[in-house]
Design goal:
about 90 residues, mainly alpha, about 80% helix, elongated
């Protein structure tokens, strides 16, 4: 474990705990954005093919938001389970 208190300049670069949390933040943002963008593109394509303009876009936008939140939830719970498992060792 690292000492409590303020880190010196450039000390945070070598701290693996901080890099793990930054990686988690990046993963959650990309996962959320990816789910929403892909589902919105599918909704736009289906609206174009069927002619039902806002129906599929709105539906798939909600599906993308829900699946993004669900995936982020699973990602975070897996992250904390592995973190607790590592603390026990």
């Amino acid at each position: 474990m690292r000492k409590k208190g303020r880190m010196k300049k450039r000390e945070w670069h070598s701290d693996p705990e901080i890099s793990r949390y930054l990686t988690l933040i990046g993963q959650t943002g990309l996962y959320m954005a990816g789910c929403i963008v892909i589902s919105v593109l599918i909704g736009i394509w289906l609206d174009y093919k069927t002619g039902l303009s806002p129906l599929f876009l709105a539906t798939f936008c909600l599906v993308g938001i829900f699946s993004g939140f669900w995936g982020v939830y699973k990602l975070i719970t897996k992250f904390y389970k592995t973190e607790k498992h590592q603390e026990r060792k």
